[in-house]
Write a structure and sequence with these properties.
The strands form 5 sheets. The chain has a 7-stranded mixed sheet with strand order 3-2-1-4-5-7-6. The protein has 4 domains: about 20-155 and about 230-250 and about 285-295, Vaccinia Virus protein VP39 (Rossmann fold), CATH 3.40.50; about 155-220, no CATH class; about 310-390; about 395-495, no CATH class. The protein is of the alpha/beta class. It is built from 20 helices and 16 strands.
Length: about 500
Amino acid sequence: MSWSKGYFTDSGYTYGFYPQLTPLSIYWASLIKGHILPIEKFRYIDLGCGQGYSLIMNAINHPDAEFVGFDLMPEHIQHATDLSTRLGLENIKFYEFDFLDGDYENLKISKFNYVIAHGITTWVNLEVRHALSKIVDKAIKIGGVFHNSYNTPYFWQQLISFQHLARTFSLNNDGSSAINKAVKYYEFVNQLVPDFLDSNPYLRDKLKTFKTQSKDYLIHEYCNQNWRLVFFSDEYEINSKIKLNYLGSMNLTEEFDEHLPKELLDEIKTENWLTQKIMKDTFLSTSFKHDLWIKGRPQDVSSAILTEINRLIIYPHWQQPFFDLTQPIKIKSGPIEIHTKNKLAQYILNNSKQCGLELNNILNFNEDLDEILRIISILIDSKYISIGFEKCNKSNSNILKIILSEIAEGKPYNFVPAGNIASAVDLDTIGLIMLAASINISNKSEILDSTIEILKKRKNKVYSEDEEILGSSLYDYLSKFYDKKFIEIKNKLSVLGAI
């Protein structure tokens, strides 16, 4: 077998950022289950960091913590190391590492509070998965948390035949061609059998999204020869062997039984814990799971959790949906739908609109701790709010300038760090380029001229109703964008500590 061990290595992966992997997100998901992780001076390892962009954002937001990234592909490690060096980060290191053949002990690195395996479980064969488990066992501290995410059979069954065809094509074609050939063949079959895609609605809708999704993502998801679907019980068996206990899910709304139908709870109540978990998963039908496992068990009491809450701040989510507080707040997570006029939820949304709401302001609200944790969690899960940490610093302006200059040169980055929420926010191409153009300029006309120059350099085209905008029309379009959207974008970025 080649060094790839069946993993797709013909092209690099995307340059994404994953909010579920931020220390603060994992910290909160652990906190609501009674376990307190350190959020200062911690150690964090990503066992499959890809291009490293997400890990670098975390290192920027937590300069007092230590970060390590492993990846099989040399080009990923090369990009991550080069970028972190240009940014001047001294709290992050990257290693080319093979789970089967790598000598972990020889690296002589200390154990970690946060151990991350994002999507890897789905993308490797069982031999590599068991080797990964051995690395997790060696890397995790007592009391540390292992974040493991993977694709499940729910919803994916309709995609399996398409993926099988794409993987077959990829044996004799590059990944991009294989995906295109598979899509065209399914369109051809749909012409011969008119209801073919209509009888597979999830597949039909998924294929429509391919036009806007990253080609690198599609190649790795659909052309990987080792790709497999994973049941929770599979992971339970593997993780139990290294003394890990299930802590909870990053899908926060699912963590509260009061959100589940009473009929479901009555149906499963006589079963053992593992069977109940699988029966709940069947109802929830989550296609991609984010599980947390702990080396030990939750030990913390309410008083300790209250102390932690006192340190946190609530900010409006970057993509906060419009809401009218005279109407019910609508929250949806899979089959769970919540329509509520909960007074605590309304108070949080109303008072976190501008510069953030300190959580200690709501501790005296007429609710118990469990209810406070529940309301905050479902508002986080439904992207109404983000939580911040009182000691998070605003993002370093020099680092932001370097990232924006990289974007101006054509790097496919879509996220900029946001220090107040210890995360990152995504902007569309025009918003990012205009931000890059404005970093050292305040005059509107100069910003617009610079934006046009960057668009030309990057060979980006701007469209309106499928027609390319050119000449003076482009200047007018960007001017309206500046007035209607860009000023609001900058104000939001400022609140969240991005600029």
